[in-house]
Input
Amino acid sequence: MSYLDNIRTFVRVYELGSMSAAGRDLRISPAVTSSRISQLEEHLSVRLFQRTTRSLTPTEHGRAFYTGACEILESVENAEAQVVSITENPKGSLFVAAPLGVGRRLIAPQVPDFLETYPEVNVRLRLTDRKVDLTTEGLDLAFFLGQPEDSNLRIRKISDVERVLCAAPAYLAARGTPMTGDEILEKGHECLNLRFPGATEFQWRLKTPEGVRKFPIAGRYESDDGDVLTDWALGGHGIALKPIFEIADHLEEGRLVPVATETPPEPIQMACLFTHRRRQDPKTRMFMEFVIDRIGAVVRDAEKRVQLPR
Output
C-alpha cells in the first residue's frame, strides 16, 4: 500500500502544483508529502518535478508518469468498488461540495442519517457559492444551482427550483413596490448582488411577455454569500433574488415580500456533478440516492407553502 500512497501523493502534487497544498488535501504533513515523492523518484530513478524555492513544475518524466498513475489509481478504485458493491458496505471519505444555501438547508441535515446508515463512511462537506473544480479539489460530488460549463462531467438533475424577487416591507414603504423588472431599473432600486470570483454574468433573468430577458442590475451591496444577501434584504437594504426554499419562512411570516411579480425570475436547475469514475464508487452512488429524493421533497414542500402572485 505504501507504493500506492506514493502514487496518490504524486497525483495530488501534480494536480495542485504544490507540496503543501497536496499535503493539506491528503491530511499529511509537508515532510511526509516530500518523502513520498522522493521515494517514488528513487524507485523510478528519475526526477518527477523540478523544484525551486518559488515553484514546482513536472518534468517530462513527471508528465508521462501522471497519465499512467491516474490509470493505476482508477483501476484500483474500480476493483475496490466492485468488492464494496457486493458487500453493500461502503467505506472511506466522501468529499462533497455545495452552495452555501443548498448545503446548509438541504445537504447538511441529511448527513447524520446517512452516516448512521453507513457508519464506515466519512463525509467532508465543503460549502461555497463559488464555482468548484471536482478534479483539482479532489471532490466526489458537487451540488450546484444553474448550468455547469464543463461538458466532461456527468450531471444528475434534482429539480427546477422556483425563485422570487423580494424585499422587506420597510424598504418597499420607503422606495415603492416595483411590479416589473423594467421598473426596478428605471427607478434605480437597490439590487443585492451575489457575486464571486469567476462569475461571468451579473444579470437577472426574468420572464416577460416577450420571453425571458436579462436585466443588468446594479447596487451598492455585493457578497459571495447568499445568506448575507438575505440578511441585507431583511434589514431593508434592497431587493434580492432568492430560491424560495431558502426564504419560505420569511415569506410566510411577511418579513420579506415578493416584488416585480409581473416579471418573475426564471427557475434555476439544481443538480449534482460527478465524474464517470466517481459514479462507480458505491459510497458516491449511495449518497446521491440517499440525498436527492430527500432534498427534492424539501424544495417542493417549501414552494407549495408559499403562494406567490401570478
Residues 173 and 236 are 10 Å apart (CA to CA). DSSP finds twelve helices and 14 strands in the chain. The two ends are 61 Å apart (CA to CA). The mean pLDDT is 86.
